[in-house]
Amino acid sequence: MSMSKNRISDFFDSYAEGFNAIYGTKNTMINRLINRFFRKSMKLRYLKTIEGCTPIKGKRVIDIGCGPGHFGITLARKGARLVRGIDFARGMIQLAKKNAKMHGVESRCDFVLGDFLSYPIKEKYDFSIVMGFMDYIENPINVIDKVLSITQLKAFFSFPSDTGFLAWQRKIRYKKKCDLYLYNWNQLKALFKNVECKEVKIEKISRDFFVTVFVG
Fold first, then answer.
1. Is residue 6 within 8 Å of 178, Cβ to Cβ?
2. What per-residue confidence (pLDDT) applies to 162?
3. In sequence order, what are the residues at sequence separation of 6 or more whose Cβ sits closer than 8 angstroms to the Cβ of residue 187?
């Protein structure tokens, strides 16, 4: 793992419990305010991904940069046959396994510690989820190519926008923690211009771009 990835791993290990709470069930006033004003994009991309994976019964899912596993666990609870999550932060994988067990779907969820680009993946998945991951990737086309090579139906990506107050504050907040990569419409259109697929749909949702790639 490179120095950059070590920085990202260290950051998310320290952030694991807080990140888990974003998708958790604690309904305090502070959490409601934070989620309303600063985490709207996280909620939207979660809802759009779950909706996009319909119908899910009997399907196979891979969640790249799975964090505490909330996307995959929700899909497992809705009937996914297998969910595989991969993350290079040990703290996130530990939380994902704990959350899967808590929701009674641990037998259909496999959360592994590793670097997606170097991790050997031989099987294919109906749906691939790449949420909150491209923010930290220096060479995005490498990830996109590998994701699409293992996807049979649809792949979902989020990319952080480079405009607005939230982009500005993230640049400052992350400056000394880990590398951060932000995007605009033209960059994303160029990035997906030559990928092999049926269709690419790019949508702006709050501070993010939500990209759906229809593979098969």
1. no
2. 84
3. none
Q: Give me the pLDDT at residue 180, please.
A: 82
**Helical packing angle, 40-52 and 29-37, nearest 10°:** 80
- What is the b/e burial string over 21-48, where b = at least 16 CB atoms within 10 angstroms of the residue's CB? ebbeeeeeeeeeeebeeebebbebbbeb
Domains of the chain in start order, with CATH, are 3-214 (3.40.50.150)
Q: How far apart are CA 126 and CA 151, in angstroms?
A: 6
| 73 vs 69: CA distance, rounded Å | 6
Q: Look up residue 87 and give its two tokens.
A: 């993350």
pLDDT at 93: 96
For the CA atoms of the chain, what is the radius of gyration? 16
Q: pLDDT averaged over consecutive 10-residue blocks of the chain (216 residues)? A: 47 44 50 54 92 97 96 97 96 95 97 95 96 92 97 97 64 60 94 95 93 96
Q: Evaluate if pTM is beyond 0.90.
A: no
Residues near 116 by Cβ (< 8 Å), separated by ≥ 6?
64, 65, 86, 88, 133, 143, 146
